[in-house]
Every structure is written in C-alpha cells, then in structure tokens.
Amino acid sequence: MHLEGSCHCKAVTFTVDCPHPAPYMRCYCTICRKTGGGGGYAINLGADFESLGIEGKENIRVYQAINEDPETGKATKSPAERSFCGLCGTALWVWDPRWSDLVHPFASTIDSELPVAPTHNHIMLDFKASWVPVEKSKGDGSFPAYPDESLAAWHKRMGLVKE
Ligand SMILES: [Zn+2]
Ligand SMILES: [Zn+2]
Questions:
Q1: pLDDT per residue over 5-40, tens digit each?
Q2: pTM of the model
Q3: Which of the four pLDDT bands, split at 50, 70 and 90, describes residue 163?
C-alpha cells in the first residue's frame, strides 16, 4: 500500500510503501507516550525504508532515547532513531539500524486512508501510565513488553496480506 504522510505544519511530507499498514499495535511505552502524545500510546506501521521519499528533510530532527536497565541502573542510548519535525514537533517515524530495511511511520502522521484493524494489540503495558485505560475489545491481545509476533506475521495471520 502506497501511503502519504506529513507533520502538522507540513514542513515535512513523505511517501512510503507500506506492506503492513493496519494500525493495530498500540505501544504504551514511556517514549511513545511522551514523544507521540495522544491516548497514552502510539501506533507504528510496518513500511519499506528503501521506498521512503521525504520532502523537507532539513526540518527533521532525530531523537535516540536513553534507556535505563531496571536491574543494573546502567543508562544506554537506544540505537532506534525517532524522527520528528523540528518545527512543529510531530513524531514521524522510527528507524532502527538493527532492522534497517524497515521503517515504522506513526499512524498519526498518515494522510492516506488506512485500513481498519480487526483487532488490536496492547503492548508495553508494564510501562503504561496509571491514568491510561486499556480499551480492550474482543480478540485484542495484551503484552507486558513486545509480542513475539512481527507486524508482518500478524498481517499474514489476519489474512490481510495479498499473495
Ligand atoms: Zn512540522
Ligand atoms: Zn513505544
């Protein structure tokens, strides 16, 4: 699926090919909550990094979170690069060098019509803020951290991938 997206001030616009566009994965982690805003979670899509075309690249800034190991207390910089608009602050996408052929745009930036996900996964619930309710519907999954199933595998299981 070909998607078009933009930040709120339109200083950054982009297009990307997105084989896994169902917005089903609600991430309640502290980074998504704070940098993405919204209902206490953010939703990433699975897209092809190579297809990403950007206008206004000079307005993009990149954030790499510092994560603290809960056991050792050691702080390390996450390799995941979170791109956002330096003018309006819109969270745009996450790119991680460990999975460099993928890019994960935030569903909130997409201007194209996205498919409606049949069920949702609520993830990183160990990090959810206490004021955020988990609005679970029938068939939804919930996970303390990341689920084992990839975005691609979930789309296949739901019959959403054309072969
Ligand atoms: Zn902007
Ligand atoms: Zn997150």
A1: 999 999 999 999 999 999 999 999 999 999 987 789
A2: 0.92
A3: low
Name beta bridge partners: 10. none
Ligand nearest to the CA of 122: 2
CA of 10 to the centre of ligand 1 (A): 5
Q: How far is the CA of 48 from the centre of ligand 2 (A)?
A: 19
The answer regarding whether domain 2-157 maps to CATH 2.170.150.70 reads yes
- How remote is the CA of residue 7 from the centroid of ligand 1, in Å? 4
Instruction: Kindly give the distance from the C-alpha atom of residue 42 to the centroid of ligand 2, in angstroms, as a whole number.
Output: 7
Report which bound ligand comes closest to the CA of 56: 1
Scored b (16 or more CB within 10 A) or e, 25-56 reads: bbbbbebbbebbeeebbbbbbbbebeebebeb
Alpha helices in the chain, H assignment, sequence order:
30-36, 151-157
Report the candidate in 64, 124, 60 with the shortest Cα–Cα distance to residue 92: 60
Instruction: Give residue 78 CA to ligand 2 midpoint distance, Å.
Output: 12
- What digits encode the pLDDT tens for the residues 88-139? 999 999 999 999 999 999 999 999 999 999 999 999 999 999 999 999 999 9
Beta bridge partners of 103: 47
